[in-house]
Amino acid sequence: MYSKQKRFQTLTMISVVSLLVFGTLACSDDEPAASKNNTQPDVGVDVQVVEDSSNPYLPETSGGRDAITQLDVPAVEDTAQDTADAVEEVAVEPDVFPDVDPVECFYPSEDQDNCPQGPYGPGAFITQLQIVPDSSCCFDFDGNGTTDNFLGNLIRSVSALPGFGDVNANISQAISQGDLVYLFEFANWSHPSFDPDLTLTILDGEDTDNNFTANLAGMGDFNVKPTSYDGNGDPKWRFGSARVRDNVLVATDGALEIKFPGLLDEIQLALVKVRIKATVVQDLNKKPSLTAGSRVWLTQGELAGALQRDTLFESLNTAALGCECIEDAQPLFTFNSGTNRFVCGLTSDDVQRCRTASAECQNLADQLVCGFLANQSSQVDVDTTGDGALDAFSFGARFEAVGASIVGLVPTD
């Protein structure tokens, strides 16, 4: 039987509840968040005509360019109420783990004669992933008492532009068709309800038999794509810390490469400072056995992270290089340190040439989209390096996950 040295520690948890501010959301970092009826005014979109501008995407510039439209998203006022929606004082309690006996055969087990064996531990498949467009979830990155989700608000606004549509609907469709498969894989998890130190990894997966109905019902089998590992064969998206307390899973210090189907197709964006919180389902037919290849159900999941600004705009520039209709003499976006924002270098000739290009290239060559992203690029709200400089956009999403058996790597031809 495999044995694990348990770390019992006393930590202090502080729960925070949302203030409804543009670009922020609310979640505690331990106990399940209380239900809130948050309301937030829609983000209005004003379209202005910029005349004779050498760079119409920066309001302070002027010169000789064709007049184009410029998209402006006003800030949302603080609408926190004096009722249950306001910040509440929550009693501080010690983060204590009881002394519980480990279950038999939890993965990885050295008892090859009596315990299931396999290359992967218990797994879960994300069946619902919804980007939060308001201030109801997921983490307070700067510790100011409100939660942060600038990217969710940004995506909501971009989704209203022609050519993008409903990003969350596109994600749901991609999941149901097997095009977007995120798997949780667990190891060293010794008790279903209490474990202060387990291992959690996110993997990029693929269905083994194209039976999507079984996948969504929690009975699917999955292989792991090679893209889940770096050049040394180590998982790219493993959390630095993970634990389960009173059936609540909390994992911190992670990373994840996210995809937005229908929103600039093929662009993959790396989140850092990723943390998740979810309830482990303990129903009779869904209680995790924690053995190799077994299944885990998660509900009321919250995922928070930060997208580094430079990474985002580098990925957009890389995508633009793949569009022959966009002139590549200079990057599509260049950084202006004086205004702390990126500048869109799109020309009217680029727009004209891309009218018959792919949907991705048409979106990249859309003056509204390019100008909107450039104008919003100064709204970074997370410091990912600890140097005091804001360099990333906060992000929040909710998820549900059903049981998934992870059986091996995707076969190579």
Characterise the protein shown here.
The protein has 413 residues and is of the alpha+beta class. The protein has a domain at 123-308 and 392-409. It has helices at residues 150-159, 167-176, 212-216, 309-321, 348-353, 359-364, 367-376; strands at residues 46-50, 68-72, 123-131, 182-187, 194-195, 199-207, 220-224, 241-245, 248-259, 268-280, 298-308, 333-336, 341-344, 392-409. The strands form three sheets. A five-stranded mixed β-barrel has the order 3-4-6-7-14. A two-stranded antiparallel ribbon has the order 1-2. Strand 9 (248-259) and strand 10 (268-280) form a beta hairpin. The model is unreliable at 1-93 (pLDDT under 50).
Structure summary:
This protein has 413 residues and is an alpha+beta fold.
Write the topology of this structure.
Elements: E1 46-50, E2 68-72, E3 123-131, H1 150-159, H2 167-176, E4 182-187, E5 194-195, E6 199-207, H3 212-216, E7 220-224, E8 241-245, E9 248-259, E10 268-280, E11 298-308, H4 309-321, E12 333-336, E13 341-344, H5 348-353, H6 359-364, H7 367-376, E14 392-409
